[in-house]
Amino acid sequence: MIGGLYEYTQAYNGKPLIHAWDYCAKDGAPLGVVGRYQDKTGKKDIVPFFKPNGATWAAGIELNPRPLFGLDKLAAHPKNKAVFIVEGEKSAAALQSIGIMAVTSLGGSQSANKQIGHL
């Protein structure tokens, strides 16, 4: 997980952190983290942590356009090879783990139009 953020993200709304996905710029520089928090009943929160206006880490995001998850990997991906656009960091990370290039939009499918500026 991105340095300096670990202590802020272990629990959210009383739910423990289940998994976190790092968001990076094209050059690999850290931008933020999206955490999945889930309680024993299965209720979940998906929460982005970014630095609004370069300040300290905070829940939420004010970037527009928003970064894509996998943008750093996409920048290094051959232009003549397929790229899958999927819903959710979990799906994108699973495909990336088996060598398939995949990206996703921050905030789910309803937010995909906020990422176009990064492509």
Look at the helices and sheets and give the structural class.
mainly beta
Poorly predicted regions: none
Q: How many strands in all?
A: 8
* Spatial extent as radius of gyration: 14 Å
Main sheet attributes: strand count, strand direction, barrel closure: 4 strands, antiparallel
Write down the overall mean pLDDT: 83
Strand order in space, largest sheet? 1-2-3-4
| Outline type | globular
Summarize the helix and strand pattern as letters.
EEEEEEHEHE
Distance between the termini: 25 Å
Number of helices: 2
Percent helix range: 10-25%
Q: State which percent range the strand residues make up.
A: 25-35%
Summarize the SSE layout with pairings.
Layout: E1 11-12, E2 15-24, E3 30-38, E4 44-50, E5 58-59, E6 68-69, H1 71-76, E7 84-86, H2 89-97, E8 102-105
Parallel strand pairs: 7-8
Antiparallel strand pairs: 1-2, 2-3, 3-4, 6-8
Q: Can you put this structure into words, describing what you see?
A:
The chain has 119 residues and is mainly β. It is built from two helices and eight strands; from the N terminus they run E-E-E-E-E-E-H-E-H-E. A four-stranded antiparallel β-sheet has the order 1-2-3-4. Strand 3 and strand 4 form a beta hairpin. It is globular, with a radius of gyration of 14 Å. The protein starts with 10 loop residues before the first strand and ends in a 14-residue tail after the last strand. The model has no long low-confidence stretch (mean pLDDT 83).
